[in-house]
Design goal:
Strand content: 5-15%
Number of strands: 9
Distance between the termini: 49 Å
CATH topology of the largest domain: Rossmann fold
CATH superfamily of the largest domain: P-loop containing nucleotide triphosphate hydrolases
CATH class of the largest domain: Alpha Beta
Structural class: alpha/beta
Number of helices: 16
Largest sheet: 5 strands, parallel
Strand order of the largest sheet: 2-5-8-1-9
Radius of gyration: 24 Å
CATH architecture of the largest domain: 3-Layer(aba) Sandwich
Length: about 300
């Protein structure tokens, strides 16, 4: 078995063994991020597999996965480190009782009182290093983006009480964004970039087969084909948000639980709440539209109507 980083093909095969089916453009971006030791910024619609890529990559590389989930109001101390104030206070009180208060004050900023958060954990992870996932960075604010620049550019952070902490084993860093807002150019310049789109029908079929082996060949093919058509024009314009890969997989699992062997308009509308999370989208998937989407197609994607 070739090493994961020996070629793009080896990387694709390793990701597939971890349950992730990457196309060659995505695999090329990941391969270059590994070879050049650069962070990789993935942007795309929710549900296209950005987070799952980081998980699969950690499995393929045999590295620990560290995840920093971003949100509005995220602070540096939650991403990097904070001091264990309770332990520091106990240390000072114990020292006062033994008459060593002056020495204790010099000791309270030792590493044993440090609570490491994901960024610092990633920098200090032992060989072969960690995979750091900075998830949904667009949810955090611009000051937090600025805070990340030192880490992204030099794989180091500055801790005032301890100095600069540099990575021993360079962490593989994946940043994701649903593009609810534009990220700053200074951050993008420090990363390789890839726009991750919805998979084509064949790749989605491979994912459904892998994740839901209990689904029959016909049902899996129908699920992949139906969702692919939902995302295509003119059908996509009828909905606020197209289903992601996770919804396709969950839908296939639900259909298996219902002992469904083949899709029909009734079962599609009855289970529409798995594909869509908006009331308007569920209502838009009528039986008539479901019937149209289920029409068989030829190799060119044209309906074959009886």
């Amino acid at each position: 078995m070739p090493p994961v980083q020996s070629s793009i093909d080896a990387l694709i095969q390793s990701l597939e063994r971890a349950g992730y089916f990457a196309d060659r453009r995505l695999a090329t971006a990941v391969f270059l991020a590994l070879k050049l030791q650069r962070p990789l910024l993935l942007e795309g619609e929710p549900g296209v597999g950005k987070t799952e890529l980081a998980k699969a990559l950690a499995t393929a590389l045999g590295r620990v996965l560290l995840r920093l989930q971003c949100y509005d109001g995220l602070e540096q101390r939650e991403a990097l480190y904070e001091w264990n104030y309770a332990a520091q206070l106990l240390h000072l009180r114990a020292a006062e009782g033994s008459g060593q208060a002056a020495q204790a004050e010099r000791e309270v900023y030792q590493e044993r009182f440090l609570i490491r958060r994901p960024l610092l954990q990633a920098l200090q992870a032992p060989e072969p290093g960690a995979v750091l996932l900075v998830d949904e960075l667009d949810r955090a604010d611009e000051p937090f983006e600025a805070f990340l620049l030192e880490y992204l550019g030099e794989y180091q952070v500055s801790i005032p009480e301890l100095g600069t902490v540099r990575a021993g084993a360079v962490p593989v860093t994946i940043l994701t964004s649903n593009r609810t807002r534009d990220l700053h150019d200074a951050l993008k310049r420090r990363c390789l970039y890839h726009w991750l789109d919805y998979p084509d029908r064949d790749r989605e079929l491979a994912i459904v087969r892998n994740r839901v082996p209990a689904a029959g060949e016909r049902l899996a093919a129908q699920v992949a084909g139906f969702v692919a058509r939902l995302r295509s024009q003119p059908f996509a314009s009828a909905f606020q948000r197209a289903p992601g890969i996770a919804e396709s997989v969950e839908w296939a699992k639900a259909l298996v639980a219902l002992d469904t062997l083949e899709l029909d308009p009734e079962v599609v509308t009855d289970t529409a709440g798995i594909l869509f999370k908006q009331r308007e989208d569920v209502a838009a998937l009528t039986r008539e539209l479901a019937g149209e989407l289920l029409q068989p197609q030829d190799e060119g994607g044209q309906d074959i109507r009886p």
